[in-house]
Amino acid sequence: MGYENVTQSLTKVIEMKKITKKFGDFVANDSVNLDVFKGKVHALLGENGAGKSTLMNILYGLYSPTSGEILINGKKVDITNPNIAIEHGIGMVHQHFMLIKPFTVAQNIILGQEPTSKMSVLNMKKALKDVKEISERYGLYVDPNAKIEDISVGMQQRVEILKALYRGAEILILDEPTAVLTPQEIVELIQIIKNLTKEGKSIILISHKLKEITAAADFCLIIRRGKHIDTVVVSETNEEGLASKMVGREVSFSVAKDDKESGDEIFSIKDLIVKDNRDIIAVDKLNLSVKKGEILGLAGIDGNGQTELLEAITGLRKVESGEIKINGENITNNTPFQVISKKISHIPEDRQKRGLVMDFDISENTILENYYKYPFAKRGVLQYDNIRIYAKELIDKFDVRPKEESKMARTLSGGNQQKVIIAREVTNNPDLLIAAQPTRGLDVGAIEFVHKALIEQRDNDKAVFLISFELDEIMNVSDRIAVIYEGKIVGIVDAKDAEVEKLGLMMAGGGNE
Amino acid sequence: MKLTFKDLRKKIYIFATEKTIGFTLISIFLGLVVGAIFLAAAGFNPFQAYGIILRGIFSKPSYISYTIVRATPLILTGLSVAFAFKTGLFNIGAEGQFIIGSVVATATGYFLHLPLLIHIPVVIISAVFAAGIWGGIAGYFKAKFGVHEVISTIMLNWIALYFQNFLIYTEGFQKPGGETSYSIQPTANMMILKTWKQSEAGREWLLQHPFWKDLLRTPLNWGFLIAVLMAILVWFILNKTALGYRLRAVGFNKFAAEYGGINVNKNMIISMFIAGGLAGLAGALQVVGVSHKVTLIAAMEGYGFDGIAVALIANSSAMGCILAGLLFGALKYGGAKIQPFMQAPSEVISIVIGSIVFFISIPKLIKVILSRKNKKGGSK
Fold first, then answer.
1. Contact check, Cβ <8 Å, A357/B246
2. What is the mean pLDDT of residues B184-207?
């Protein structure tokens, strides 16, 4: 049918025409066109740093375009700040929520447009009624009296959406809405999106997750390095087609991996008990082992003790009881320094908090664990020439972009930040590599790269321990899969025999043991 | 012609918004403008006042040397605060560390009897060490009990102040009949050419060389040189050594530092020790070079607090602290002269300094001011 034919009979609510945005010499958006239609979901697909957020920030009035024009309902508008965007019925749900945690749901929703009775007294009764009304109308069920700090991330996102609807939004921009959600919450969100479009709302969905785009969107604009690549009808394409347009080459989803005989057990955990920040037992008598030349995947829903387990292994959290051993040596309650010296490397869950010093440049970040060793330091004095050479090698080998070792880590895209961490950790040549959520927030191309790096470690007869909330990733990459539920391993299966339904059941606590 | 003028404005805008030095210089300029407004409002000619200040700093060799003497402790307390800043800590305690440094320097300078070349180093090293411990206490409290360093250093400032006053009233240390301590031994005195200046031959030579006579009239001492060397040393440690790497990593992101195997708590204590030592050095140099004793103090003297302003103006750069300290010393010394010469309140200088810090803390304000000018230029 083609995009032109399908959209002919639809009403355009937004037209962004030939939008160009330059930051100095850098062109973030290069003549990008976007049309949004009433009652339809328009996805915005692109790699990290492709210019999706820039385009949306222009629409929301946070940036002004260098050239190009915006039409809303056929009329040319000049959106110079977010208030004007809101007046035109545009609402935005940011990736990081902007909610006041000690306030209730209803208080957050009405904030800034509080209904008042005479003498400017807050009319909470009306507020609650209004909130209830819109929440029922769109199937966005929330408890208006619950405090934000007590509700789940998925619920908080609903509050953000309600906030925009309360302000009369007709067009909703959802910025990477699923990045923080569990699989179940994602299913619910897609249902919510469907309810909204049924009521005539238009949605712009920013994402680099192909699955969600094919599940929720009608049309999809693909941008690559700021350039308008194509606009497609989602029902006429598939994930592979979208992916190759996004990265500009063919992408394989299945991970190429040869069979490999695993070796001796190198890492083991026995009866481990670890408490979380609230002093509640998070890891409960956990047993686990990893062999040389294998990737052990840990599947589980977020919050079942994965973070605490990781921190306990790497020395960042105290172990209450139990034993952790590598190469036969007990490393229970060792300091991070000792753990690293026992040849354990760790790709941390939160790359910006743990993995990188954002105000160090790339070269300084590549020596985070080895800065005091020769050739990086001689008698306590850093040898910047050697550090730079080393960083350049890593940048080349792991294809970090831009290829400048003096760039601050802060200025890199998420995928390249992750590459720097992986380069550093893999080059430390560990016996055990722990990879926690190594592809979170990365685009298809970068994910492929990370998976290859992990498999290469395994092929070099090293042990890899992969923790991920993405079941697909666990099933594709691992040799064996352990499932964690409420701090315990509830089952271990060979990846070849693994079935999604069975794993899903175990992850939800319905184990087979 | 019109175009070039516009270009110039654009250049100033870029200079001020994209270069740290440009931004600092514009802030200083705006600070002086604010001071001028206050002077004018009080009925004084600001040009005359700034003229007096400039002449008061540069017109005689002795003025320049007084400025340098004034700047020396400020450079060091500035370095102390800047060093802590770079490692993620806010050292409000330079004031107390300065006091501890000067008390210990006076005590070791008075009680010990040592040969000339040994006495001064012993005095300085023991003062630096004591003040380092004083700073290190705050670091230890933070590492061990999570007490914020701002709170603990403020408390330690008061403890230091009353400790000094307590000592001054102690027999054996108090000079009879005064609210001051005994003066340090001559062997601990670091004034340049002190004995020669008072000798027969020296006095005769100085009579024939008025430039040198005027210059050496002042308590000019080796302290400034030491302060400059310290700035270089601090720069080297922070940027070129493994220790500096560790400290900066902890300062920028302690979670990543911890993950990388760096002992965060230990490095916080080390950082506060070094910061304390630098402020203590300021106190010690003040004693061996200028005051030679400590006196009863009713309130904080402000060397440490001025150090915070110096560090802010210097954008926490070690080399910047030398320049910011000199600027500060010059304004304080030269600024005091508008009072006797034109009866203008010398407090204006504090307004100027406050405004500079104010403008530096709000980079966006300058951007707004300059960009408005730019727009006007464009519409003409």
1. no
2. 82
